Amino acid sequence: MDLRAEFRRWKAQRLSKADLSRKGSVDEDVVDLVRLLNAREQFFTTSSCAGRILLLDGGINGFEVQKQNCCWLLVTHKPCVKEDVMAALKKASGDAVLKFEPLVLHVQCRQLQDAQLLHAVAVDSGFRNSGITVGKKGKTILAVRSTHGLEVPLSHKGKLMVTEEYIDFLLNTANQKLEENKKRIERFYSCLQHALARETMTESHPKIREKDSPACSKKARNTAKAQDTHVPEESEKEIENDGDDDLGISVTLFPEDY
Amino acid sequence: MDLRAEFRRWKAQRLSKADLSRKGSVDEDVVDLVRLLNAREQFFTTSSCAGRILLLDGGINGFEVQKQNCCWLLVTHKPCVKEDVMAALKKASGDAVLKFEPLVLHVQCRQLQDAQLLHAVAVDSGFRNSGITVGKKGKTILAVRSTHGLEVPLSHKGKLMVTEEYIDFLLNTANQKLEENKKRIERFYSCLQHALARETMTESHPKIREKDSPACSKKARNTAKAQDTHVPEESEKEIENDGDDDLGISVTLFPEDY
């Protein structure tokens, strides 16, 4: 079976399966992006989480406990108020931790070059911890990840270690990150539309070169960077040094006035 | 110029350059790993941070401020005590945030298959957010990343929002994560040695197949997973469903008694 046919078979198989997540459906904020990807023959999504605020009751000292034993006290994809967290914390008996987790999206790609395009778009949209996985049999998956998280221990052995005022302040930060995450998803959607349109155009008119189009990816990337203080300096340096010329993240994605 | 020669040239160029990080040298905990990689002709490291606890004085509400304006009040690669943080916090005038950042390592690889091998080893050692970047000209880099962080807002407009007791508790958690990160680096080093020895052996004796060797990567992976509650469920599912057969993370890396 040739690569295209095999990919089509995988895609059909995957998209026909039931959604096995706890929620059982794709998160609202990421539905358009998931649809856009699945409508293209070279992509299909294998998992997604739009971003969420969650309160976990871990075992004592967090990471010593198996994930399956870790209890979710609260999960929300929407901004969250102090009262919700205070009520959920009453059920905590171990070390409760509040987290903000940004978008995580896994996309299977037909060929490495499809993953490269998507990777470039993801990084330019602010999802700078994205990366490709290539399996032994050539299965190619792009994981879209952000550096933009939050992880805050709140209680120890069931005892609250912070004040209500702090939780209020913390949720303000978490809600802002949720909002910024939503903007990045919208930016990703818009960038992807442009990149796919450009790709289609280049395929039908191979003489159109990238540099003839308005260049604005660098601007977009810098906007995303400016709002992000999370990546270690070394990693930042890496992306800055090598990004523009060689890492495939210089595709032009935005109109000048974005 | 052929691929091997070009890669050799890149490597020589990179390794002859001065270390441009603030610290100016490779972190102690990662020196052996960096040496092991740079001693192999198919790899060279382009940046590394072994893992650290840091206190940043961000602008108000953290991510609104450019990275270059964000002030480092404290950085340490060693366990940290409350007194250090309390002293550093006195200099905070904006929104101070305490972070634990695990290992980040960027490794340029000669070919995609070299990156695949390294990726498999990284994931099996617990660095589950690792991913490959392939540039337009084929430059292939593996970023080794963990899910194992911590990010805690401590003050707002210079005002401390938590108690000293909380900072003590928080540092206990951060120090444990630093310790666990160190174990993962050691596991990565050991796994990599095995994988490279196996690769060399397979090259000289192509009949030796993986399944003839003691299989223990799954065990190692599960150990790493059990200590990690950070990855969103969907992403976890993805790795679990596809990992063993297709994502190249079933290479056998550990001796049975690891």
Automatic annotation (TrEMBL), chains A, B:
UniProt cross-references to Gene3D superfamilies, sorted A to Z: tRNA wybutosine-synthesizing-like (3.30.1960.10)
Gene Ontology MF term list: tRNA methyltransferase activity
GO biological-process terms attached to the record: tRNA methylation; wybutosine biosynthetic process
Database matches in Pfam families: TYW3
Source species, domain of life: Eukaryota
EC number of the protein: 2.1.1.282
InterPro entries (alphabetical): Taw3, tRNA_yW-synthesising, tRNA_yW-synthesising-like_sf
Top-level EC class: transferase
Biased composition (Basic and acidic residues): 200-213, 227-240
Disordered, as annotated region: 200-258
Reactions performed catalytically: 4-demethyl-7-[(3S)-3-amino-3-carboxypropyl]wyosine(37) in tRNA(Phe) + S-adenosyl-L-methionine = 7-[(3S)-3-amino-3-carboxypropyl]wyosine(37) in tRNA(Phe) + S-adenosyl-L-homocysteine + H(+)
Involved pathway(s): tRNA modification; wybutosine-tRNA(Phe) biosynthesis
Domain tRNA wybutosine-synthesizing protein: 13-193
Keywords: Methyltransferase, S-adenosyl-L-methionine, Transferase, tRNA processing
Family: Belongs to the TYW3 family.
Role according to the record: Probable S-adenosyl-L-methionine-dependent methyltransferase that acts as a component of the wybutosine biosynthesis pathway. Wybutosine is a hyper modified guanosine with a tricyclic base found at the 3'-position adjacent to the anticodon of eukaryotic phenylalanine tRNA.
Protein name: tRNA wybutosine-synthesizing protein 3 homolog
